[in-house]
Amino acid sequence: MSRIAARTIVTLAASTLLGCGEPPPPQPAPRRAEQPPPPRAEQPPPPRRTAPPPPRPRARPIPLVKPDAVSSACAPYDKKLAEGYASYLDAFSNAGLALTPDGRRLLYLSNRAGGSYQLYVGLVARPSAKPTPIAPAMDRIGGARLTPDGKTIVFVRDKGANENWQLFRASLDGKQVTPLTDRPGWYHRLPRISPDGQTLYYFRGAQRARETQLVAQPLAGGAARIVLKTQGFNFLSDVSPDGKRLLLTRLNSMSDSEQLVVEVATGQVKRLAPAQGTKAHAHSGVFSADGRGVYIITDQGVARAGLVRLDEQGAVQARYQPRTGEVAQVKVPPKGRLIAVLIDLGSHRRIELLDQKTLRRKRVVRHPLGAVSLGAFGDTGRRLVATISSPSAPMDAFAVDMRRGRVRPLRRDRRPGLARLARVKAREVRIPTFDKLQVPVITYLPRRLKRGRRLPVLVSVHGGPASASTIRWNPMAAYFISRGWAVVLPNVRGSTGYGKAYEKADNGRLRLDAVRDLEHVNKWLRGRPWADPRQLVVYGGSYGGYMTYMALGHQPELWRAGVGLVGVVNLRTFLKNTTGAIKLVFRDEFGRLEKDGPFLDRVSPIQVVAQFKAPLFVYQGHNDPRVPRSEQDQLVRALRRRNHPVEYMVAMDEGHSLSLRHNQLSFMGRVMRFLDVHLGHPGVPKGCAP
Question: Residue 620: which domain range?
Fold first, then answer.
């Protein structure tokens, strides 16, 4: 899907509970008719009553595949490896969300406590001071916003990473936390807040239901009013300055979305873009400060997503098309003549400032090269919160000065061990593949590499499919490099940031072309002076896990080992059991279950599992609503029947995630030992070898 919509689906898509193999609900017993009175002699005997049919047998649940336990011989070695990785996790990350209206406080997310991301409020004047935690817990926070007066925080949190987000309200000091929803089987997406701060607008629904509800709920609490009932995957992007209209993005598929405006009072819906009869992306709309215009990101009629400004009737007033890359986010301040846009260049991102009326570029913001995302405005529009990560610095919160086009850090936390961690050198190269396309590849190498030394290489494929790997602080890559590895991140066809044609180049019947890209990445690596051609390992999570399994099955001679996390194994069962939202938006990417079954079989890893030769490590979160555990179970079961070398790890407190510290440490210790064993690296205890 297009740009920011692609990444939004990963965060916002509704989830399904693990249900593969569950028995159907019990059938109700047949109701027995009342016994008739005895017939009189002159009457004929009543018709013979047949016995009621026996109850339908309940389907037996498919038994879960038992994960592998770490042997006593391997446990000390795993622990030692995990302890080494702990130093990299200690270099925690911060994600900036918003400044209070007076500019004195910062709301942000951080994993500084060593677990999942939690909410904090920090003092801008004291960026090194310890922040105030807001509702700390084991379970993660999925997002948060400040009310317009800056006095209240609204946030969502799920349970065991099951993506059934519940809504909460908290005071800025964290002392008062109030739940606003209590429907554990439903998701409640992060709300937009009315300009007067009194009403929350958000989508809610049951994960397996087709219908989703747009509701209005008082911030003070109480029943939610249904504004609109609709189907598919929808998300709110803005509320008008007068609070009477909402901007809604409806995602129809990975290549098609609509920007709609909803009247709050009546629920009436009007389509703004794209033009009727046109299949294109139009999403992430934001009202102008005066409410008379709307900014929309769209790729209608162009090769790369740009920005348009529409008037109240939907006519185009201005257009901005970046010279390179694609528009990924737009932020409009309550005051001022400039707006901010985020440009996605695939391997990295850039902030630009545009004139709000003409959309002419005024300046490019100077910031470190790497991954960037935009938060909210503070100080009535003078400063914009941004989150930036570079290869040598973990993700952190910055303020963008809208007048000068410069950034300043909002946090200066101490990370004592950061300076001693492995230093990496990151760059992007383009490599030729089987056709005229070139595959962008990010390489992470040691800052100092001895001439003639060849390293084992971890080839890490991103999820999505419509997403991209970016140059950023990557603790896993840095740890692998400290252990004598190189790490390579290919943005195979289907990745975002390189234009619409490249993003669509793996759709439908072209799916295997992306797998062929991996083959050419492998061949390219064999010609690098720093890569050991005998030790190339493919790694990936979610769609990257799917690509890992496809590479091992279609290119068994090229890969020494594989590591797959929460990957799609069987497209038939995946599309049957995944969330309704993902099923919908994957129609262009893979097809429809009801009519494309034979093709889905041909491009499913389960069809080529018999061709695997490389040992495989498999990870799964038990509560995963997107790629249910049954997917990895199928794969592991098939490999064990062949006595193929496979190790299976299941985290009972994770979903489509690997976010809790104890799971991250266990995973890295086990994976690194698994690779050391199967690649023949020194140091593994004798009793730990297979």
Answer: 75-88+418-688
